[in-house]
Amino acid sequence: MILSKSYYFNLFQVDTPLLDRLTEEGLRSGGSYCDLFFENTTYGSLLLRDGAVTSGGNHVDFGVGIRVLAGEKTGYAYSESTAPADMLSCARAAAQIASAPVDVNPYGTRNPSRGEPNPAADRYPIVQPWRGVPMSTFLPFLQKLEADIKRRDARIVKVIVNLAFQVTDVLMYNSSRELKWDTRPMGSVSVSAVFQQGSQTENKSTSRSFRRGADMLSVALIEEMAADVVKGIDERFDARRPKGGQMPVVMGAGASGILLHEAMGHAFEADFNRKGTSIFADKMGRQICPKGIQIIDDGTMQGNRGALNFDDEGIPGQKTYMVEDGVLTSYLHDRISAAHYGVKPTGNGRRESFRYAPIPRMRATYMESGNAKAEDLIASVKKGIYVDEFSNGQVQIGEGDFTFYVKAGYLIENGRLTMPVKDINIIGNGPQALADMQGVADDLAIDPGAWTCGKEQSVPVSCGIPTVLIGHLTVGGE
Amino acid sequence: MTDNKLHNTLTEEEVALARHCLEYALEHGAQGVRITLSKTLMNLIGVLNGEVDKTAHALDRSLQLQLFVDGRFGTFSSNRLEKDGMEEFIREAIDTVRMLEADESRALPAPDRLVKDAVTGRELDLYDDAYDTLTAEQRRDMALGSTAWPQPGLISEEGEYSDSVFDSLTIDSQGLYARHTETSFEIGYESTVEDAQGNHWSSYWWDASPRLKDLQLEGCAQKAFQRAKEQINPQNVKSGKYTLIVDSECAGKLLTPVLNALGGHSLQQKNSFLVDSLNQKVFPDNLTILDAPCTQGDTGCRLFDSEGVATREMPVIEKGVVKTYFLNTYISAKMGLDPTVEDITRAKLLPIGGCKTLEEVLQKVQDGILVTGFNGGNSNPATGNFSYGIEGFLIKGGKKVHPVREILMTGNFLTLWNNLLVTADDARPCQSKLIPTLAFKNVDISA
Prior knowledge:
The complex is a heterodimer. Chain A is α+β, with helices and mostly antiparallel strands.
């Protein structure tokens, strides 16, 4: 949502002369670039436990972060007050990174965009706002969702439903006199249920998260999430650990996009490449996976958890092709890395809050559909595994080793899904897995879950993928 | 930078605001109130390849309110600590709580359980006065002083020195006054090396202490560099059952899910593999884990939990028997059990088997896999099943043979801990849990 400039100026008690004074103070010691990031976030939460919504609350986080760049070096300070004296003190602290003017200023006049934010191009218009609405408005949603879940399976003994929403106002200004503002909503619903069958206990969970207003709390969402949380529970009780080792892995469409996030996305973040640590540091322009594959990081999908009108450096949200026809074509850049490589920023400069300096981060990362059929990919595997439900992942940037934790899947035996499997970790190497991608189906799905990336700071992201077949990954087992 | 002496702990005005907010909430309809006011001052110097790359300076304040209104409960917080704004915030918060459903289990702790001896915040000797006189130049020197840059094969080195002072005050409408103040000094380095084939290998090392003089600055970057170099040329191992030695840098990861399973929130929701385990012997005779929260000068110690309830040294698992669940006032009421504390503060596993060092453990077990780091993985809280990516070394005859990586350990926590063979006595004081090197037999490895 993009409101009027005066709303943000009044909220943060600033005007253009004060903004200029702050950036001038930041550059007083010789820095080459200074930016200001004002933030006002209001959070709300409601928790249903044991059949009643008995816990909830609101939280406010307000402040300004001031960054000074001296070449590629960063000075950062923040204040929880926007009183001029406090902000000037903050600017002076950030300015200390510079001890003298730098010879070359790579930031000053690069493609200055002086246009004001355009409400018509808003990627998260709000129909029903979160703010200013009594909490009681949202209680029936939680109660109906719990009731719908419980009626679907008599084995359910516990249900927790959590609704969390936040609205963040940001105002950004820099020493190139670029001014941007934005109001970013985020609503997230998560459910966990515990099932008992005889002496066995199992849990299942699901989540949905969007940059949308309270209108996301629909009847359709209740039905979708209730169905999701009980789906596959019979298999979960029957599931076993497979015999571990290297084997082909078919990754189902949607949440398997965690593969792209961990195995490739982080290694494409340009700060790791600028510092020479990434395994992809010298692979720009090279064929890194089979022809026909496109891998994208996208901030333009309306209402998506990774959508951005502007990144946290004021660069417009955009769609970035990292891999085109199997060739590495772009890293994900913030202003520092873009200046280092002499390219335009890609709108990936993101931060958890005003307490953090921005760094290159993913938004919604996915692979475009291929030509194969999912069932044909499964049928082509003599002995392997099919996975489609995950919790977390991780990567080691230098080595390229990635892992993700599989909550549910199936063995593939002679081209057919057979025994359900659960609770296994899968490990592989990013460049090897990319090169070993043996088939891509035509069924791209973007996962709607509440994915959060934790590289130094937590930011909301999204991921997606069509069904893919990878020739060899190491699967945990007995 | 600002004048540390003036602003690094809570001021009288800030404490007065917290008291005012408590009174204001009571006057406007709350029957019970708990307030936690906290303040953190942090300085950071980042180093890249032997030069200062980043500086950061931060001051955070937050006031959290927990309101008990007409049998209902809500939690609220703000960092906008102006008096007028807080009053409006509290009025709206009370209105919000009234919209929630009633819950008879919500209550403040019984007064006799509240801490009485956390008045100055410095009772545990966790505040180092050296913080007050640190200069920007000294911080810079400490950050740069540890660098190992340049070295043959070292292609990237990132380091961070940071220090902070944290001060918090928790008060409630029953008269609770609980203060905790601590300083923290931390150094960390990550090194990436390149081998002859152009492959990259990374590792890290770090240290932290509440006292500056105890911070191990020297050798930190060098150790990260050595650990990275040791990873060059990994080789495969066969899948199968191995003795697993987990060094003290990462052993705590295998205890955390066990402690989580003893937490009231998991137990009450039946989402724990340790349901109905209280006073049951579910672990081996040789396993004893204490909560040691009150040790003077020890990292992570606290005299009270988030409700202001006094902590005390107590066995969590004693000779294999579960002795404690972690139950706050709310969860204990829902479960019909006596409350304990919200969570474990300072876990301490008592060493077994007589070994002092990792090397002695390796000699004792002779063959197996030494784990020096984890790469992802997770566990199922309801069943205790786990699967983790690991990296480390193949061990033969008590010696490292070659590095291993891209392998997985898979199993169940009850089985794993019942296969505990021996430990060292080398827990790292900087870690939040005092867990030494551990050795387990018969662990499934997939490679």
